[in-house]
Amino acid sequence: MPEDAQQPADEAPYIRLLSVKRFRGIEDLTWLPAKGVNVLLGGGDVGKTTILEAIALLLNPTNATTLSDADYWQRRHEDGFEISAVMTLPLSCGIVEQRKSVWPWEWGGDGAKLPDLEANDGQPHDPVFSVRVCGTTDFDLQHEICQPDESFDHFPVSVRRNIGVVRLSGDDRNDRDLRLLQGSALDRLLSDRTLRSRLADRLGETDVDGELKEEAKAALAALDERFVFRLLPSQLGLGLVGGSGFSLNALIGLMATKDGTKLPLSSWGAGTRRLAAFEVAALHQVDHPIIVVDEIERGLESYRQRILMEELIANPSQVFVTTHSAPAVNAAVGAALWYVDAGGKVGSLPASVAAQQKRDPETFLARLAVIAEGATEVGFVTTLLTRSIGEDIRRHGIRVSDGGSNSEALTVLRGLAASGLAVAGFADNEETQEGLWQQVKDKLGELLMRWPIGCLETNIIPHLGDDQIEAFITDPEGDAGERLRTLADRLGIQDKSLAAILAATDDVRQLIVGAACGNPPADPDAPNDQKKEWKKHGQRWFKSTAGGAELAGKMFALGLWPDLSPQLLPFVNAVRTAVGLAVVQTVN
Amino acid sequence: MSDATVAEALRSAAPLVVVEAPGGCGKTYQGASYARDVAPGLGEGRLLIVTHTNAACDVFAERTRGLSRRVEIRTIDGLIIEIASAYHRALGLPADVGAWARRDPNGYAVLADRTARLLARYPMIALCVARRYPIIICDEHQDACADRHAVVMSLKKAGSMLRVFADPMQMIFTGTAAEMAAAEQRWADLKNAADRFEELDTPHRWANAQPALGAWILEVRAALRDGGQIDLTGALPAGLTVHYADNVAQQNMGFRVAGNLSQPIYARANLQSMLVLTGHNDRVMALRAFFNRRMPIWEGHVRDGLSGLVADVRDRQGNAAGLAQSTVTFLGSVATGFSPTAFGNRFVAEAQQGCAKPCNGKPHHLQAMARHIVETPDHRGIARALDYLRGLVANEPAFSDVKFDHGREFAEAIQLGRYDDPDDGFAEIARRRTHARPKLPAKAISTIHKAKGLEFDNVMLLPCDRANFGDTKAARAKLYVALSRATTSLLLVVSKAKPSPLFKT
Questions:
Q1: I need a surface site. Which of A27, A66, A364, A384 has the fewest CB within 10 A?
Q2: Contact (CB, 8 A) for B43 and B135
Q3: A100 interface with B at CB cutoff 8 Å
């Protein structure tokens, strides 16, 4: 047993650095994936699937892959492509036992680095290997290991097989893995090399002539006579014959029994087929293969998506998953979330957004996520944007999402803004964390609407005219009683009529603001019961999604828009621009 | 029987097995048969045999034929070069580490030092090597310097099982006193660290020809190792002859015995096979004269004269006079008769003056020789000059006193002219020499040092006196190496006037 040497032997292999150059739709991508499950999010056609296929090609357990010019960026096969990875590998994969010695590099945080005799950091060493696959200009694949002396040696199939890659692809190609096609997962699992010839022998013995109907026999006899006449080979009969492009094994597929009948697995539902193919692939693999799952939700109900995601997370394997599914994102607790933007950049969604992932997974699946700091803001912004765009904003990929609170929204916005995911924000100004808010503002510009001071209520209510007070207080059902009650309570009067209230206060707007915001009594020594009671007042006003929508509706109905337009219009236009709509002068 | 215990120890699960293996006791047989037994069961891993010479590699390769997938055989320097090549950029070395090491006078030592440090600092590298080679057999481990030993030990630390064969009595004592003490300490430490320590003690090499001589050599080895004397007073074993005669030569490194005492020596030299051993290079020359130049000198694998010439050529390129001077120095080390006074000075002067003066006779020939260097003032010119000299010696009576003692080395200097770069040429010639394994002549005169690893039926060792064999560890080892070369007969020419303290007479 080595004394102080590290023991990577039982560790699962994993990719530390992935670099893809000129492969399919990706011109140049560099990415440092996480050790466990990596969930890749992002819109269509941004290259998520290509990343998965690049990994699968790099670790391809066979050499039987043909390339076409579509595998090259812009079909420019004359430039070649290269997929390289720096990997932590357990020595049990046999990489150092090849014909030629293979040597480790040291992990340098962002790539493989050479050992350094001068460095004296005393850090434990983190050995990695550097591997790549190149598509040559003449459509050949070259798997290679990059040695620390910058020479390249062959990256053998046996080592790739021992590292292992299990693939659950998004398209219906998984049907292939349920058949005994050469190189399919089922073929590799059974690895019965002589089955084909044994079956051919058996089929050759089949008496086909005997099965023919009488008329058919007569036709065959007539043909035989003709052959004799023409001096062609005669004594004709029928038998099973092979031919090029025809594979006996392709006819053999996995069967399962359903309701007493044996059926090919390929006739089951899409989700079952996928999971079946996945299990076939996983079973004959080494302990912890690298797993790539394209569109985890395909054919799977929400609960199966959740179960699959949770199983993947519990597994020590490194996993790459793409998804557009909210349940899958929601279940991906402990996984690393990544956002692939339209430029092919992979941005990290930091762990700080985990709460948002639980709260509203769709945030990460939208074309533009608007993080509103609370329910009121969600209702308000949804109404405002719907009004501007003139139709359901979801049709434009806009998701207005509840950020949870002012500070939570800030955390989420910071995390998302750094990831490359398109994001907007709508928040109060509580005069806290100014520096961090400023950083977000610098990044998002007008996409962040943060009041210069205060909140929705404090910014809207002061604009009310005297004649608008009653209409403002009255809720959409035409009832004003509960809200008047909160005002009367705050004034300490029994009579909750508007007249009595107006008589008891010299600033009714400020009074309404206090009630709508649930502000506590001015006296800090007020009884706790009263503090609690006053806090609840907000719920009677706009502290809900519906309340926010009502507030927006009233802003327009009562003609307050011109007062608020300077604050809100730049935000509306920034959102419109982000989803490809023209800038407008106002919102009607 | 130690053979059985050693075989069992090798096959045990002990991580470190150390076998003290005197020459001729079957260590190669033990090592190779262990390799044959264990290698097929190693799975993906391989068994590595680490030797010190290419010749030893060949012997093991022959004995493990058919196992090349499972058994790799390398010199320790070959292994070090492979590791250092992979990390040459980290070690600050050029890409072709092997060529660099051959070229640099200190190359192999620097390489071993840096590789040992690399493995100590990066156990991950040792771990990969150990994974590849779960079992390592070290042959002749007494010859491993501190850094080479450290390389091997870091592989053990990383998990390789180690099987070490060593004969501390065959250590090469060429370094400083401190280095010798360190080497002894390493051996002591290795024995202490061993999970199993065994000693081979059956003199197989002598079993057929002269068993009594074999047994005596092992006895003598123990005596020398343990600080004792070789007792020549009692009955001597069959095959051993002691001839008492003093070296009465006047010159420092000469050799001569009183007329009446030379006869038994000459008589013995007439045997079909004979290896004449002595302590110093210069005395090898004297002995060649003593035996009337009838016996060739065994040149071994070392070419001190040629490597000096190559180093000079590098520094003196374009300087004809300087190159001529180097040529004279080289000839002094490989031949007799081309002395400065007889030929050398005139030869250098011709080169200096551009071979301008018309002349005749002997000077004319020297001028023609020097002209090659004037016209091509580099190693190629020297090669042509030497080739010209070879013709003169064969054909011109004036040059008939020039005798080539190191004929191979002289021929290699001429071969050097075929290469564009003298360093590359020297490296290539050295490589061919080690792989070609020159056939042993039936008779030879050699230093003890160069005779390491050789076996001859008949051996004589002379002179055995105080100057050559004082009471030092180095002398004890040297004496044992000399004695153990003989398989049938051994003649010792022992001094009574200046007795060696290692003999009891």
A1: A66
A2: no
A3: no
